[in-house]
Amino acid sequence: MSDLMDLPKMKGIFVTGTDTGVGKTLVAGGIARVLRDGGKRVGVFKPVSSGCSHEYEGLVNADAEFLRMCSHCDFSLGDINPVGYVAAAAPAVCEEFERRVVDFGLIEACYKKISAVSDIMVVEGIGGVRVPVSRGVDVLDLAKEFDLPVVVVSRCGLGTINHTLLTFDAIRGAGLKIAGVVLSGYDVESAGLAQESLHGVLEEWGGVDVLSTVPLDDESDVEQGRLGEVVVETLAEVDWESLCG
After folding, report:
1. pTM above 0.90, yes or no
2. What is the DSSP string of 134-155?
3. Exactly one of 9, 11, 24, 46 is catalytic; which is it?
4. In the chain, which residues have pLDDT < 50?
């Protein structure tokens, strides 16, 4: 049994990114929408977040709101995102700054509540896999607790090869399965050699399937709660259910 949490074994995926702002929430929400459209009861979960604001439902994170909207997951934002901080920083930093430690017991209880009535869980991490969550605990440690195949979201741009391959190494080193990588924010009008060759390079050097290349979409905006149909249609080309562990 884990020292952190005792979580139920579920069918689902854990979505992480090579960095913050790479489109992780957009992709996670899109996957949840595709699974929901396929008739599945989709539970969404963001165990820890930062950069929250005080709203009518308490301390609210825009990512959690977006995930709930995409999935129609019928739970409060406090259940979907049980631990949140106001400061936009790594949770381990927020713990000290806001004098409130990450409550892993609460995370466990909320995950059990949502997963009990869900066919598939889509769990989204925070930042990249080595982001410190609490003392001695990073996002990789969280991912190991959920024990789900990991989808890596990577940006389409210079520098992403190094970040993505290092992320693969970290995930494999933790003993986790990589379901594949999604390239996010592909701009056909400005794409050059680096962007156009990215798919092949990552598959060759990373030994990981590029599942989808999501185009830049002005109709999608996580902060505004908008998921564009072009994103949904692109992600719908993937059999996500078969990738869920």
Report:
1. yes
2. ETTEEHHHHHHHHT-PEEEEEE
3. 46
4. 1
